[in-house]
Design goal:
With about 400 residues, the protein is an alpha+beta fold. The protein contains 13 helices and five strands. Helix 12 links the parallel strand 1 and strand 2. The radius of gyration is 40 Å and the shape is elongated.
Length: about 400
């Protein structure tokens, strides 16, 4: 006999609901018994003081703690395996919510679970009364024919009760899921906080990946294209020095090609240093910024105060942002700062903050919202949760301040 699909789904759902309720009853019954035991101990202490009662009570309280905290993981498994509901893994700091569910709400739910399972057992037993009467040997039924009619009524009541079990079980399961999500689930504020943490981690990963990609490009340029250009410039210089019998036009072409190759090498060097200088990884921020100050087209006073007793350097991504900010700032001062004769760069680390200040004595008037260069600097700083401030009144001076987080 083929079972209709709807009936089959209803039977599967009912079996799942009953299994969920039975598992919940097992987990909720332990805190209820512990509550009952503690109450009995307290009543015994009041009515009939016993010197051993405080000792027993002292051993019972840790059981309450284990039940309030340790039953959370079995509850998570019950919701996930039997109902497909995923409850988040709660931190130990959220133990109040775990205690509230396991020690307060659970003992209340177990009353409903016990009533439902008792109804199920009674309905099954009542619906089988006629079967039991039929199984009684005929010689035993002689003279007791009056039992058939009450047995029929009892069977009908059992079947009605059995029909009421699935919707009641489904309602109880929905109630437990609602309560579980409300107490053991994630609140709106916690969900937003965890989302912020996830976004922060993903952004940090993206920043680290971009920094690693810049380093790879820097190595490829340094070991590949730059070496080829150096070899080309050497060959052109050798040709210029040895091939003196060539026509003047050919010598001019070789001389122009030699100059273009040297200019390309210089531009490539600047590009490589702007991506991620090797000295930043090898010798640190102080050495890298010293190289920038030495190559700047105007005098730069550099002061780097990084305490030697710090347990570790700043993160590579943070050092790269600090280097990039100083590099772009000095470039902007040389190109756009009117009448600027000097610049000053100060780098200090105070606890978990790396502070970079760049100032010049130009005529000011720089507007961070007016150009893509300063906007790019601000976005680069914000990519590592830093802050970017700029003061550039008309008439000068201009000061750029950047604070970058450096967690210990």
């Amino acid at each position: 006999m083929t079972v209709p699909p709807r009936l089959r789904r209803a039977l599967v759902r009912m079996r799942r609901d009953i299994a969920f309720i039975a598992a919940g009853m097992t987990l909720h019954l332990l805190p209820l018994l512990l509550h009952f035991w503690v109450v009995m101990l307290l009543l015994g202490t009041v009515l009939d003081p016993d010197p051993d009662t405080p000792v027993v009570l002292a051993f019972t309280l840790p059981l309450l703690f284990v039940a309030g905290w340790g039953l959370t993981e079995p509850q998570r498994w019950r919701f996930r395996a039997l109902c497909g509901v995923e409850l988040p893994r709660l931190r130990f700091s959220e133990i109040k919510r775990q205690f509230g569910y396991n020690l307060l709400i659970g003992p209340l739910l177990v009353v409903l679970e016990l009533l439902l399972l008792a109804l199920l057992l009674a309905a099954v037993a009542a619906s089988l009364v006629l079967v039991w009467v039929w199984l009684v040997p005929p010689q035993w039924r002689r003279g007791h024919g009056g039992y058939v009619v009450p047995a029929g009524y009892l069977t009908a009541v059992g079947l009605l009760a059995l029909a009421a079990v699935p919707p009641l079980a489904g309602g109880l399961v929905r109630l437990e899921i609602l309560v579980g999500r409300a107490v053991l689930g994630v609140s709106r504020s916690d969900e937003l906080a965890r989302r912020v943490e996830d976004l922060t981690e993903s952004r940090a990963g993206a920043v680290d990946a971009a920094d690693a990609e810049r380093r790879r490009i820097e190595r490829d340029l340094h070991d590949g294209a730059q070496q080829r250009l150096v070899s080309l410039a050497l060959n052109l210089g050798l040709a210029k020095a040895t091939l003196t019998d060539l026509p003047p036009e050919a010598q001019q072409v070789i001389d122009a090609a030699h100059r273009e190759a040297k200019d390309a090498i210089e531009e490539l060097n600047n590009l490589v240093r702007g991506l991620h200088p090797a000295v930043l990884d090898e010798l640190g921020l102080d050495a890298a910024l010293s190289g920038l100050a030495a190559r700047a087209p105007l005098p730069v006073r550099l002061r780097v105060d990084l305490p030697a007793d710090l347990p570790q350097r700043a993160a590579p991504a943070v050092e790269a942002v600090a280097y990039f900010v100083v590099s772009e700032a000095l470039t902007n001062i040389a190109k756009h700062a009117r009448e600027a004769t000097r610049a000053e760069v100060t780098v200090t680390r105070l606890g978990e903050i790396l502070r970079v200040v760049i100032a010049d004595d130009g005529m000011g008037g720089a507007d961070p919202s007016g150009g893509s260069g300063l906007k790019g600097l601000a976005q680069r700083v914000r990519s590592v949760d830093g802050t970017f401030r700029m003061s550039s009144p008309v008439g000068g001076p201009t000061m750029m301040s950047v604070e970058l987080p450096c967690p210990m």
